[in-house]
Amino acid sequence: MLDETSSLEEVREYFGHDRFASEACGCEVLGASHGHGVCAFTIGPQHKNAQGNVMGGAIFTLADFALAIACNIGENPTVSVQSSIEYFSMAKGTRLIATAEADKSGRSLGFYTVSVVDDLGTKVARMTATCFRRA
After folding, report:
1. What is the pLDDT of residues 54-101, one digit of tens each?
2. How many domains is the chain built from?
3. Among 33, 66, 129, 132, which residue's beta carbon has the most beta carbons within 10 A?
């Protein structure tokens, strides 16, 4: 995995190979450090549901991508074992930004909160997750 001294470019290179989040959804890494990840995408037609709003699955994908970055830098390989998302509001802007923060990062379990906002500051969603670290 990536260590705590990995540069943003190294993190982007590593996670840029995520075919779904990076390639299909257009998620990009904006910030990364131990216990912290920031990702975004510009809202496009591929993100919208039949009502013309950003699909919940697209929002979840962005949040999950930020989570993957936050929980894998400077840690053993880590995967989400439980996550829950609450949707607050429709996106009103043109871009979504997800920020993941470690609430508690233990040896085998990590607990994280991911906030998703649009570029106008609208609170769109919040995800909480429990992650497991492989030894």
Report:
1. 999 999 999 999 999 999 999 999 999 999 999 999 999 999 999 999
2. 1
3. 66
Cβ neighbours for 62, distance < 8 A, ≥ 6 positions apart = 21, 25, 27, 39, 40, 41, 96, 98, 116
Kindly state the percentage of the chain with pLDDT values over 90.
96
**Token reading at 29:** 């890494």
Q: Where are the alpha helices (DSSP H) in 5-93?
A: 8-15, 56-72
Calculate helix-pair angle for 56-72, 8-15, nearest 10 degrees: 130
Residue 129 lies in domain: 8-133
Residue 92 pLDDT: 96
Whether 22 is in a domain gets the answer yes
The tokens for 103 are 């609430």
Q: Is residue 3 part of a domain?
A: no
Q: Is residue 2 part of a domain?
A: no
Is residue 21 included in any domain, yes or no?
A: yes
